[in-house]
């Protein structure tokens, strides 16, 4: 079995950091990720820099990323202005977020969920015309920090609505880390049944220590792409206590011990997590860098 791990540390991982990370360090994070074998990377966010100052240098980051055959760079886009910026940097993919509840959608994107669907549809048409891969992410799919529970029926209805714009991929995001494996199975299997042939991707946070169990449940239910953040850094600046992306290195250890292939070197990602902690000035939440792999690597082994 093979699974794609999509690295989100350069975007979702860093966006919640208060101290601005230098552009050169962002580019180095991406370079190290590519060197470790990661081939899909969400590198930047083309949003209003006043709302997310950490992403103000998106164009500079994209100008410095290594252009390696087989490596695909994604940018988060909310509106036409963001898409204009993204297309000008030659991104390979765009990710457009549609939030599952009106309250969170207004706080996150200043629009209702219905308006978010309309925005996504318009952006998808433009991106398709430009030959750019299109992902739509349903945020707060497993629960909302303001409205509480979000029913599976409501999420699957939203899947049906966003699917009308023919995404290349549909992502289900546990934005505040409240999901559990049973709910994950229901939504992943339900999404796959509604849009057969469209890959299902999942984005989990480990806020309440369920992220890795949810990742396994997603794979069992048919998801083929998992987001993860080197070091386990990140969160949403517009959702209270939305901390703790699942850590790329810890997820890789789990997958590799289950004989699930990724094409990524966990030890290299773990070393990057340690380096990233030094850049940020505090140890990262990931555990592999502290405990090490198993069986322990022999000197000189790869």
From TrEMBL:
EC number, as in UniProt: 4.1.3.4
Keyword line: Lyase, Metal-binding
Protein name, as recorded: Hydroxymethylglutaryl-CoA lyase yngG
GO molecular function: hydroxymethylglutaryl-CoA lyase activity; metal ion binding
Metal-binding is among the record's keywords: yes
Organism annotation: Nocardia otitidiscaviarum
PANTHER family linked to this entry: HYDROXYMETHYLGLUTARYL-COA LYASE (PTHR42738)
Organism taxonomic ancestry: Bacteria, Bacillati, Actinomycetota, Actinomycetes, Mycobacteriales
GO biological process assignments: ketone body biosynthetic process; L-leucine catabolic process
Coiled coil segments of this chain: none
Encoding gene, per UniProt annotation: yngG_2
Pfam families: HMGL-like (PF00682)
Domain of life: Bacteria
InterPro entries hit by this protein: Aldolase_TIM (IPR013785), HMGL (IPR043594), PYR_CT (IPR000891)
Domain annotation Pyruvate carboxyltransferase: ranges: 3-270
Entry's family note: Belongs to the HMG-CoA lyase family.
Matches recorded under CDD domains: DRE_TIM_HMGL (cd07938)
Record-annotated membrane-spanning stretches: none
